[in-house]
Every structure is written in structure tokens, then in C-alpha cells.
Design brief:
single chain, alpha/beta, Rossmann fold, 5-stranded parallel β-sheet, globular
Length: 471
């Protein structure tokens, strides 16, 4: 497949439909097209700024990176049964999203032979039961662990690594780490790099200027993708095409810019929650990945000028058609505080006909002869209709098909959407001081050296708590 063929690329272009966000469709709670046009100049300036600073930002240039070291590292572990990622946030969510989007829904359950690549597990929590189960379940002799941490100070990841390290040494001997651990970290500094050098571990470099939530197309996400058989060249080609589309200076033809504008206009009128609702089981974890990207990038206390603004919209993860039976009641009849973003798919990998039966039972018989493909797309359209009738704005991204090219394209479109939205909000899209505050409190509670003052402040705050309000 020639992923750079313009005609084929055009056939795989992701489409955005914002008609259902407009007042002409959903009424008073929709947005005025004139307001979209009014923000076009500012969005165009944001696009120009992203392009001018792309080398500093790093992630816009990822489609052109050299992936030879990643492919070589992946090839060296193809013989093992299990590949385990130890990471959290941006060092986990993208890995999960790529694998679940592009591999068999029961990938890990397939027998070796049917499944020609290692199974993938992602450990992204310090939960003791999860970490104990990892040690108890997987045979260390047929497992390789990829430890992902830019600094080596991420408590959750490093704790899992320490547990795995001890387990490998106890079961396979002191030299086991070199054969069973791959480090992905900063190219020049940090505790994780020091450990990698000290232990003689194979290491892949993280681009130091790319933040975790934008790192799915770096060594962070690409190694596990390659290990599980994903065509990472196609993934990057799709991302390059996505950047091309999302850089169009004609904002009215730019899906990333339009989506950013629509999100902010809806937020301005009180719809400060964005529901990401793909109608595809393969895309369920795209919502998880997007939730971090959107929340951590745009939820900020201060503007670039230092003014207290407390901005941001809350991402909500949903899955069609599953959540039609759990959340859609709220979306249709609850508060007018949500913008629903559907992701639809034109062509699925399989076409499955629903068998005909029970012809005398009309409530069942009508399904026979239709396909599951028709059903899930009808359910997406029906949910949009229900929202329209209730005056609730919604928009739809449509993928022509699910493949590595369209998934790479989708990642880049959503990253650009987020960057444009941050620029329009006049905030730093790429820092996360709220996350750092929690990390510092964790360091203090666990007695890390240098955090005694914060530990004392926490103790003083706890002393002011009243037992009266604990029941």
C-alpha cells in the first residue's frame, strides 16, 4: 500500500460534521455561525504560531522521525510471549489506544500462531493487587518489560519497575535485566537514564521537548505498536496527512480549527463538558487517550499573562452503542452542559449479517437480514437525532475505515485541535502544574528527601480537620 498516494489519502480523509452544533439545527442551545466566523482570525493566528514553533513543540515533526531504532528493538523481542509496558498517563494511554484500535479485539487471548506477535500488557497503576498479579501471572523467562519514564521520578512507574526488577533477579539471575528490560527515557538526564546506564539496559530515547500526552507517536507508543504488529510507518504517514489537513490556513476548511472553535463557543454558553463517544469497539480507548490530552492541556488556573482564569472543559468517556443504555438518558434530558463528539466509521473490517428468526415476533424479526454494520451506524445516527430533537449540540468525526493511517491521522487532528483551543484560551497548553502538585504531595507523604517542609504543611492541615465530620 502506498500511504503517500494523494488519491488514496483523500479516500481515507477523516470528515468532521458540525451541523448539529448550530442553532439552525438544535435551537437556542446551539451556536451562531457568525460566532464561528468571528473566531476564524484568532484560530488562523494560532495555526501560524504552531507552525512557527513546530521545532520547539516537537510533536508536529514526529511523522518525519527516524524509526529504525524502534523497529530494531521490536524485532529483538518478537520471540517472547509477553511485552509489558510500565508507564502511566501519556506513557500508557496511547499504547493501549493503538493496540486496541488496530489489533484483534481478543488479541491477547489468541493462541500463538494465530497471533504472530507478543501479547501486550500495560501496567499503569500503583494498585497493589494489579502489581502482585503481574508478578504472579506472567512467566518472566518469556516476558520483556518496557519501562517508560522521562525523569525516572514517576512513583507509580518506578515502583512497578522495582518490583519487576527484584522478581527478574530472583527468578532468572542478576544478568536477567539486560535481556528482559528496555528503558524508554530522556536522552541525556534523569534517574531512569542513570539506572539504564548502571544496569547496562537497552535504551530508547524520548524527545525531550514532547510532553507525555503528546507522545503516542514517539518511542513511547511506537515500540509497543511495532511489537504487536502495527504498521508504524502507516501510523506516521497518517499523522503527517493529519497535520497537513489541520494546518490549512482556511479555518473554515480545517477540521481541527473548527472543532476547537466549536468546543470553546459551546463552553462559553455553559456546555463545558465534552463527551467523546466512538461508535466502534476498536476505538473505545481513543476516548481514554483524548480525556488526558484535553483535560491536562486545557484545565488551567492562569493565563499566559498571569491572570487567574480557571478555564477548561471536562472530557467524558463514552462508547456507542454501549452507553446509549447508561449515559445517553442524561445527555438527552439532563442539564444543557454537554457537547457530544461522536466518532463514526464508514466501513468496518467485517460485514456481519444478522440472521432471520422468529418471524411472528415483530419486535425481533425486523432485525433479520440487516447487518451489524447497519445497526451500529443507525444507532449513532439515532442518538444524534435524539440529541437534536432535545436541543443538544453534537458533532461527528467520521473515519472512512479503521487502519493505521486513519488512526495516526486522528491522533494528529485531536492534538492540533487541543493546541489550537489552548492558544485561543491564551493558556500554556503544554504544562501541568496541577499534576505536579499531586506528585509533590506524594513525595512528601512517602518521606522523599527534600520535601520535609511540604510534609509539615500537610500534617498541620490534617491537624485542623475535625473528627466530627468523619462518619
Amino acid at each position: 500500500m502506498d500511504y503517500h498516494n494523494p488519491q488514496w489519502q483523500s479516500s481515507m480523509r477523516i470528515r468532521l460534521d458540525i451541523n448539529n452544533t448550530l442553532r439552525t439545527v438544535v435551537g437556542a442551545h446551539g451556536i451562531d455561525p457568525a460566532d464561528i466566523h468571528a473566531m476564524a482570525a484568532a484560530a488562523g493566528a494560532a495555526l501560524a504560531d504552531i507552525e512557527a514553533n513546530r521545532a520547539h513543540l516537537g510533536w508536529p515533526d514526529l511523522p518525519a522521525q527516524d524509526i529504525s531504532a524502534i523497529l530494531a528493538a521490536a524485532q529483538k523481542v518478537m520471540h517472547v510471549e509477553n511485552f509489558v509496558v510500565l508507564g502511566i498517563g501519556g506513557s500508557a494511554l496511547g499504547n493501549i489506544a493503538v493496540q486496541s484500535a488496530l489489533n484483534h479485539p481478543f488479541y491477547n487471548d489468541q493462541p500463538r500462531g494465530t497471533r504472530t506477535h507478543p501479547r501486550l500488557y500495560v501496567i499503569d497503576n500503583s494498585d497493589p493487587d494489579l502489581n502482585a498479579a503481574l508478578i504472579e501471572t506472567l512467566d518472566p523467562a518469556s516476558t520483556v518489560y518496557n519501562v517508560i519514564s522521562k525523569s525516572g521520578t514517576t512513583a507509580e512507574t518506578m515502583s512497578s519497575f522495582l518490583a519487576v526488577r527484584e522478581h527478574l533477579i530472583k527468578t532468572l539471575g542478576p544478568n536477567a535485566l539486560k535481556e528482559h528490560v528496555i528503558v524508554t527515557t530522556d536522552p541525556s538526564s534523569g534517574f531512569m537514564r542513570q539506572i539504564g546506564l548502571r544496569e547496562g539496559l537497552p535504551m530508547l530515547e524520548l524527545p525531550p521537548n514532547v510532553g507525555g500526552r503528546f507522545s503516542v507517536l514517539t518511542t513511547v507508543g511506537l515500540l509497543s505498536a511495532a511489537v504487536t504488529g502495527v504498521d508504524i510507518r502507516a501510523l506516521l504517514a497518517g499523522a503527517a496527512y493529519g497535520y497537513q489537513i489541520a494546518s490549512n490556513p482556511d479555518v473554515m476548511k480545517n477540521p481541527a480549527a473548527l472543532a476547537a472553535i466549536v468546543n470553546l463557543l459551546c463552553a462559553k454558553q455553559g456546555q463545558n463538558m465534552v463527551v467523546m463517544m466512538p461508535y466502534s469497539h476498536h476505538l473505545r480507548h481513543i476516548s481514554d487517550w483524548f480525556a488526558q490530552l484535553w483535560a491536562e492541556s486545557l484545565g488551567k488556573k492562569t493565563s499566559l499573562s498571569g491572570e487567574t482564569v480557571n478555564v477548561g472543559t471536562t472530557p467524558i468517556r463514552a462508547l456507542g452503542a454501549t452507553d446509549q443504555h447508561s449515559q445517553v438518558q442524561l445527555y438527552v434530558e439532563g442539564p444543557f452542559d454537554k457537547l457530544v463528539n461522536f466518532i463514526a466509521v464508514d466501513t468496518f473490517a467485517h460485514s456481519v449479517t444478522i440472521p432471520s428468526a422468529y418471524s411472528d415476533l415483530e419486535g425481533v424479526a425486523y432485525l433479520g437480514g440487516h447487518t451489524f454494520n447497519e445497526l451500529i451506524n443507525a444507532e449513532q445516527q439515532a442518538t444524534a437525532i435524539a440529541l437534536n430533537d432535545a436541543g443538544r449540540p453534537n458533532m461527528t468525526h467520521t473515519l472512512p475505515a479503521i487502519n493505521a493511517f486513519t488512526i495516526g491521522q486522528l491522533f494528529m487532528l485531536l492534538e492540533m485541535q487541543t493546541a489550537i483551543a489552548g492558544a485561543l484560551l491564551n493558556i500554556n497548553t503544554f504544562d501541568q502544574p496541577g499534576v505536579e502538585a499531586g506528585k509533590i504531595a506524594t513525595y512528601a507523604l512517602l518521606g522523599r528527601e527534600g520535601f520535609g517542609e511540604r510534609r509539615a504543611a500537610i500534617a498541620a492541615a490534617r491537624a485542623r480537620r475535625s473528627a466530627q465530620w468523619e462518619v
